[in-house]
Amino acid sequence: MNVNSFNQAQAKKLRQFIAMLVGGLLIFASVVPGNTATISILDSLSTATPSTEFSVFGSSGTGISFAQFVGPKFTLTQPTTITEIGAFVNNCVSIIGGVPFCPNTLPLTVQIRPATTLGVPDASVVLASFVLSHDNDPLTVSYESVAINLLLQPGSYFALFAPQGADQGSLLRQATSPFEYLAGSIEMGVLFPLTSNASVSTQFGAVRILGETNVLIDGCDSGVPNTEVPGGLTISDLVADCAEGATNHGQFVSCIAHVTNALKKTGIITGQQKSALQTCAAQADIP
Hints:
Layout: H1 8-23, E1 39-43, E2 53-55, E3 60-64, E4 69-76, E5 80-90, E6 94-96, E7 99-101, E8 109-114, E9 128-131, E10 140-152, E11 155-162, E12 169-175, E13 181-182, E14 185-192, E15 197-204, E16 207-217, E17 220-225, E18 228-229, E19 233-234, H2 235-245, H3 249-266, H4 271-283
Antiparallel strand pairs: 1-16, 2-10, 3-12, 4-11, 4-14, 5-10, 5-12, 5-16, 6-7, 8-9, 8-11, 12-13, 14-15, 16-17, 18-19
């Protein structure tokens, strides 16, 4: 059985929600179609938030330059659309006596590269490259990010931060102002593009990667985005509840049919998506 998990505290609420759907107690006409649920693929921001701003004085991190690209390794277990990549980074060649020396400073970029069979960044393949936001303040380490829509298949990848041209910078490890800060631990990939050498090791780095997934039923990818439904749940939550409550396969398929029929009435899913979910349910080895 391979459905998205949910905690026990939600179980009763999920069952009540399905009962309302099946019983037709929700007013479907007034329901606005839900948003796809965002998942955290990697988050090592620790006690910082994207709105935090650290002083460059007292901060340190892993260097980023034309000769060294750095960033986290992340692994996907199902097709996933990456929606945001961000990190606490700064780019300036040097700050001497409080005066920044940052000629021709441009926003940093992030490259998506696959992992090789050795588990290190692939020096020969760039799947996608994006330009990060830029506060244009060399004295402040800010959360710089980019909103994207990149579908990746199951596997291991690296999000490597790289400069444009000969600029230099760093990926934040720790800071002292406005508070004592240490980023979370990540598998840090390092690529030396001039030699094509690469490595990976456990280090501290402040990075966040967000994404969206489809509803997966016992390994069957329905192709239906895992959308939020009224009550703050997701379609995958409802699938999981159907699986938990079924004592035989027929009950599971019947439950999915009731739920998907109701979701179609709300406009949350289309008729084609309803059929896709029901097909996956029918093929599933559940329970």
